[in-house]
Design goal:
There is one protein chain. The two termini are about 15 Å apart. By secondary structure, the protein is mostly helical. A hairpin with a 2-residue loop joins strand 2 and strand 3. It is about 70% helix and about 0% strand. The longest helix has about 35 residues. It contains twelve helices and four strands. It has a two-stranded parallel ribbon with strand order 1-4. A two-stranded antiparallel ribbon has the order 2-3. The protein folds into two domains: about 180 residues, no CATH class; about 170 residues.
Length: about 350
């Protein structure tokens, strides 16, 4: 009876966490749209409360536009923008920030209610604190990223390094929230034991994280348009003059993290590697003694990675056409998150040694 009451008391908390997972996914997608449309530097101030409202009249819009005109992105890139153009990019950055505020509200209000009703067990306290700190850190990094772009007199966009950090921290928050929810929802009897498969899953996930970092580099440097062809890269399997791109040369480490052509080359090859590894994983998963839940969900990584590769190809070949590219790239990002979450699910359900009590 006590166990039944315990499960019932945890379910609303788990549902709340899953709502958070959905909202974080939307927030990451809004961040992707913000980046692709070049909207990230359109709002030049940070007003946590008053900033929730956009300019309310024409005079306010003109004031915001004048502030945007003072930064490098307008002076060197968007100098021909009209107020109408500015409103478009302002909307995406404003919506991105508004959604972050909504996530905060959705976290805080149920948290207080659950606290009053004593829904939280003792073992939930530490994960809850970590969750709160991860969310706060993500907001802080996001603002530091934007501020760096506003203060740099030569910055046309936010640094792709800072973008990658912001992106990976968001994915970390996403995965941690899902894991926390799974701890409250998944019955222990549905877990499976396979030390080798768990280790293999962790390795694939680590490679995927590297791939996601390069995906952020792709977005940050607009590297898809460096080679809008497939299966070859601008006519070659291994691009010529990889150490240079246009008139720029990239010595040392910058060759791997600043060169748009090299970044796309790595991103493509990692995609092929992950595709192969996940299909090997699927074959291995079919050979272990499995529970019903594992059997029903083991196809997820393979199915999702196949869709992800297709979307990646379509994004690259359409990268010079802003209309289709925007939505293909966002779909590509969305499926990348699903792939990561599917692997997190597999890491959760596969135990290396014994089922926790």
């Amino acid at each position: 009876m006590d166990q039944l009451i315990s499960k019932r008391s945890s379910k609303p908390v788990a549902i709340w966490l899953l709502v958070g997972v959905g909202m974080i996914i939307i927030q990451v997608l809004l961040g992707g749209i913000t980046r692709i449309t070049g909207s990230g530097l359109s709002i030049t101030e940070w007003k946590p409360i008053m900033g929730a409202l956009p300019p309310m009249n024409e005079n306010d819009w003109n004031i915001a536009f004048e502030k945007y005109k003072q930064i490098a992105q307008f002076k060197y890139l968007n100098f021909d923008f009209t107020l109408h153009d500015f409103k478009f990019i302002f909307f995406w950055e404003w919506f991105h920030r508004l959604w972050a505020r909504l996530i905060g509200v959705v976290f805080i209000i149920p948290f207080v209610i659950f606290l009053i009703r004593k829904r939280f067990k003792k073992e939930m306290i530490r994960p809850m604190i970590i969750l709160f700190l991860l969310g706060a850190l993500q907001g802080l990094v996001g603002w530091i990223m934007v501020m760096s772009g506003l203060e740099d007199s030569d910055a046309l966009y936010v640094s792709h390094y800072k973008l990658a950090i912001h992106f990976i921290l968001a994915l970390g928050l996403l995965c941690y929230t899902l894991w926390f929810a799974l701890e409250l929802l998944v019955p222990k009897e549905q877990m499976v034991i396979s030390k080798s498969l768990k280790r293999f899953t962790i390795w694939i996930t680590a490679i995927l994280v590297l791939q996601l970092i390069y995906g952020a580099f792709m977005a940050g440097l607009k590297a898809a348009s460096a080679a809008p062809t497939w299966p070859k890269i601008n006519g070659s399997w291994i691009p010529e003059n990889l150490h240079s791109f246009g008139t720029h040369r990239f010595p040392g480490l910058t060759f791997f993290i600043d060169n748009p052509l090299m970044i796309q080359f790595i991103h493509r090859d990692l995609a092929y590697l992950i595709l192969i590894l996940i299909f090997i994983w699927y074959a291995k998963a079919g050979m272990i003694t499995a529970t019903t839940l594992f059997k029903k969900t083991k196809w997820l990584p393979a199915g999702i990675v196949l869709l992800q590769v297709i979307l990646g190809i379509l994004s690259v070949v359409n990268s010079t056409d802003q209309g289709p590219f925007l939505w293909l790239a966002i779909a590509h990002q969305f499926v990348a998150m699903l792939l990561l979450l599917s692997l997190v699910w597999m890491i959760f359900i596969i135990r290396g040694n014994k089922i926790p009590q």
